Amino acid sequence: MVHDDRVPNLPTTADTSARMSKQRSRDTGIEVALRKELHRLGLRYRVHQRPIKAVRREADVVFGPAKVAVFVDGCFWHGCPDHGTWPKRNSDFWRTKIETNQARDANTDHLLAEAGWLSVRVWEHEDPTTAATRIHTAVATRRPPKRP
């Protein structure tokens, strides 16, 4: 079953619309830095793939055999408890948008767990080296044993 998790577009100012349209959704600075660290640690992975083909949710980094899906979450878009902000202009729209993102993230984690996957969430403000070490540990503990 596929859910449409999009929030209807409500009017925003032209400046806000222009600024938000320039936000990268993939290959952000933190994503690239994290992937470099993961590669440096000897990990190989796929980028921007659906861990479960039937679920229309794409992970930023995927470790297929270990069934680990990594999501790099932006502090604004995903409501970081440390750095997330609630805009004052068009506040109902943005609160709904961010809370919908959070609910979708929780649902994604739940669906992946049901299918035997581990979701690892990395905030954009996290140190890439620290996050990569955490991911390396998760992948190493879940990687299937090598055949002789």
Distance between the termini: 40 Å
Total DSSP helices: 5
> What's the pLDDT, averaged over the residues?
87
Low-confidence stretches: 1-5
Radius of gyration in whole Å, from Cα?
A: 17 Å
Helix-residue proportion: 40-55%
Number of domains: 1
GO biological process, one term: mismatch repair
Protein name: T/G mismatch-specific endonuclease
Family: Belongs to the Vsr family.
Biased composition (Polar residues): 10-20
What can you tell me about this protein's structure?
Belongs to the Vsr family. Residues 10-20 have a biased composition (Polar residues). Keywords: DNA damage, DNA repair, Endonuclease, Hydrolase, Nuclease. It comes from Saccharothrix variisporea. Residues 1-27 are annotated as: Disordered. The protein is an alpha+beta fold and 148 residues long. It has one domain (23-142): 3-Layer(aba) Sandwich (Endonuclease, Chain A), CATH 3.40.960.10. The protein contains five helices and four strands, in the order H-H-E-E-E-H-H-E-H. It has helices at residues 14-21, 29-40, 75-78, 91-114, 128-142; strands at 46-49, 59-63, 68-73, 118-123. The chain has a four-stranded mixed β-sheet, with helices on both faces. A hairpin with a 4-residue loop joins strand 2 (59-63) and strand 3. Helix 2 packs across helix 5 (128-142). The longest helix has 24 residues, at 91-114.
Question: What are the main properties of this structure?
Answer:
T/G mismatch-specific endonuclease; endonuclease; four-stranded mixed β-sheet; Endonuclease, Chain A; disordered N terminus; DNA damage; 148 residues; alpha+beta; globular; 43% helix
